[in-house]
Design brief:
Radius of gyration: 21 Å
Distance between the termini: 43 Å
Low-confidence stretches: 417-425
CATH topology: Na+/H+ antiporter like fold
Oligomer: single chain
Strand content: under 5%
Largest sheet: none
CATH architecture: Up-down Bundle
Structural class: mainly alpha
Order of helices and strands: HHHHHHHHHHHHHHHHHH
Number of strands: 0
Length: 425
């Protein structure tokens, strides 16, 4: 990335922030704006900025963003309160998520995408995580029942980390079936990735929580440096796992979960740091997606690719979510609402890029193309529909005071992003 590219990106961020208040009531979401701006200035548009993902700076920025998102998303989820109050996301994650992967694998294998069974499973796992930031007005609206918006918030906070070991497993199996190294090599490699990654995360997260908690309690630690500690611990978990031969991203997720659930006050400053720093990195990552990743898919898009992307956003998610919510007493509009708002975003695209890069899967181009098309459609469709459907659903919930949707639950922090949406009228 050269100086001109830095200047153009910085100018675009400034211009967006200047008009951000006027955009709050519009259907233009921040991810939509940043993807579109990135595409405009990148190789697919005017070619004003050299933002090649292979560049060390761009690659490093994307890597740090994913590390922080995994760490902070896991840290803000209080597992004790989830077990006590939130059976909906537990069902969506425990029943719905495995069914989404199985259903997606079957369809990817049947469609003429040229994938083996393990490559089809890998694609389904890569596209399983959701990103609540793409439909932020849904999880931040105070008019949507707390139980429903928290179900989407918790699902989004945990499913990327839960999906990651599954992604690594299928990537290993897909690589082992055709690699020259032999199955034994890949089995050992996969076991180290999935085993040593969480181990490093547990150690760093637990020790970090104890050190930060004690330093804060004794007045040794300045509040202005709490965010720096979070950043350093997230990167330390990643680096420790990579040095041991484990997966650093899995370590970041597990480390964040352990840290957030062990540190005093539930790690409130972790969430504050995520709001102040990691959200701008997330939006810049969407910009980089539009500038350097989206144009790569243009020459590989076929009708099976588009069909699978549309099915991934609809039936592949909707059927498992509906099945997972049977017996909960939720009304049909609520089940449909939860089934639709499963946007695919940053985690899917970065999982595809980094995991495929490390494992050398032969169907890399096919899997990456489907992922790019799915995320692009999700940014558009979920972004456009979020505010109108949140308003519609809020009106629908107006007379449901005694319904299952309004059962009291505790609130966990949500990711707000640069723009904090106004409440629906």
């Amino acid at each position: 990335m050269d100086t001109q590219a830095f200047a153009i990106v910085a100018a675009g961020v400034v211009l967006f922030t200047l008009g951000s208040r006027r955009l709050e009531d519009s259907i233009l979401t921040p991810p939509m704006a940043f993807v579109a701006f990135g595409f405009l200035i990148g190789a697919g548009g005017l070619g004003l900025a050299d933002l090649d993902f292979g560049h060390d700076v761009v690659h490093g920025l994307a890597e740090i963003t994913l590390i922080l998102v995994l760490f902070s998303d896991a840290a803000r989820i209080d597992l004790r309160r989830v077990r006590r109050d939130h059976n909906l996301p537990v069902r969506m994650l425990g029943i719905g998520l495995p069914l989404i992967v199985l259903f997606g694998m079957a369809i990817a294998y049947v469609l003429p995408l040229g994938l083996t069974v393990w490559e089809a499973a890998l694609l389904a796992a890569v596209l399983a995580p959701t990103d609540a930031a793409l439909g932020q007005s849904v999880v931040s609206s105070k008019l949507v029942p707390v139980r429903i918006r928290q179900a989407l918030n918790i699902e989004s906070g945990l499913n990327d980390g839960i999906s990651l070991p599954v992604v690594l497993l299928f990537a290993t199996l897909a690589s082992a079936s055709k690699a020259v190294e032999g199955p034994d090599y890949w089995l050992v490699f996969g076991a180290m990735q999935i085993g040593l990654g969480p181990l490093a995360g547990i150690v760093v997260g637990f020790l970090g929580a104890r050190l930060v908690g004690n330093a804060s309690d004794r007045g040794w630690m300045s509040e202005s440096f709490e965010g720096a500690a979070v950043l350093a611990l997230a990167i330390l978990a990643f680096a420790a796992a990579e040095l041991l031969g484990g997966n650093g991203f899995l370590a970041a997720f597990v480390g964040g979960m352990i840290f957030g659930n062990c540190v005093d006050e539930g790690g409130g400053f972790v969430f504050a740091f995520a709001e102040a720093e990691s959200q701008i990195l997330t939006l810049i990552a969407f910009l980089l997606f539009g500038a350097s990743i989206l144009p790569e898919a243009a020459g590989y898009v076929t009708w099976p690719v588009v069909l699978y992307a549309l099915l991934s956003l609809t039936a592949i998610r909707a059927v498992p979510i509906v099945l997972s919510l049977l017996g909960t007493g939720l009304r049909a509009p609520t089940v449909g609402f939860l089934a639709w708002f499963g946007p695919r975003g940053l985690a899917s695209i970065l999982f595809a890029l980094f995991v495929l890069e490390d494992h050398g899967v032969l169907a890399r181009e096919e899997i990456l193309t489907v992922t790019i098309v799915t995320v692009t459609l999700s940014v558009l469709l979920h972004g456009v529909s979020a505010a109108p459907l949140a308003k519609w659903y809020a009106r629908h919930c107006g007379g449901m005071e005694d319904a299952a949707e309004n059962r009291p639950v505790s609130e966990l922090p949500t990711r707000q992003g640069i723009v904090r949406p106004r409440e629906p009228d």
